[in-house]
Amino acid sequence: MSQTPHPQHTALSLAASGVPVLPLRRGKVPFGNCTTCADNACGGRPNMKTPGPCRCGAPCHGWAAATTEPTVIVSPAWAAAWRHAACVAYHPGGAGLTVVDLDDADAIAWARTALPATRTVPTTRGEHWIYRGAMRSVNAVRPGVDIKSAMAYARWLGPGIGTMAALPDSVRALAVKEPPPVRRSPQTLSGLLTGSLGECPHRTPAFLERGVAMAEQRITEAAGAVHATVYRTFLAVLSRHGRCGCLTDTHVTRLFTAAQTKGETARHCTDAWTNARTALGL
Q1: pLDDT digits (tens, 9 = 90+) for 69-82
Q2: CATH class in words for 93-175
C-alpha cells in the first residue's frame, strides 16, 4: 500500500525540476512571518519582483518564500514549518506557468467552451488548468475563476493529466479590466460619434470597410472574455477611425450588433464605446 510522500520530500522533488516551492499550513495558507520579519520589519519581501528566501532564512512572506534551493528546503529554519505543514505550494510564475483556478462545476463548464484544452489537475471543488507561460495574477476574473501566476501561489495537487498548452490570449484577456462605465445621460448613436473631427486620412471607403469588417470578425470569433474583447475592439476601431469623422451610425450599429450577438447588452456596448472614447480623449 503506497503512502503519501512527506511534504518536504515532495518539495525537494519539485525543486529539482525547477519549480519554486513553499510549505502551507492547515487552511491552505502560508506560515506567518517570523519575529524578525513581523509587520514587514525586514522591508517586506512581497514588494520584491522576484521570489526567493528572505534573509532570515525562514519560509516568510508567502509566495516570495518559494525556492528551488534544496539547502533552504532542508534547512533548520524551515524544519519547524515542515513538521506542521499540511501540503506543498508552488509559485507558478516562478516556474513560467499560469494556473487558471476553476472553483466549481459552472466554472469548469465555462472553461471547456472558452479556453484551449491543457493539462488539468483535480482540486477539492474544481480543477486547475495549467498553461505554459507567465502573466500577472488576478482574482475573480469571472465567477469561480482566479488566475494564479506571478506573485501568487498554488497548491501542488499532483502532475495532472493532458498536454500542457501555451498560455493563450483568451486567458491573458481575462486580466484586462475595462475602465468603470462613464455615467452620462442617454445618447443616440449619433451622440456617441460626436467629437473632434479632422481631415480623413483614408484614401478609399474600402479601407474603412475592411477595418470595420475585421472588427466584426474579431468580436464574432471571440472564444471567451467577450466583454474585454468588445472593449479592446472598440478601442482599436476608434484609435484608427475615431478622429476623422468617417465612422457613421451604420458602422457603429454593425459593431454593436456583433457584440450583442455574442451576448453583450446594449448598455454594455454603449459603456464600452464611451469608455474607449474617453481613454482616447475623443
Answers
A1: 999 999 998 988 99
A2: alpha beta
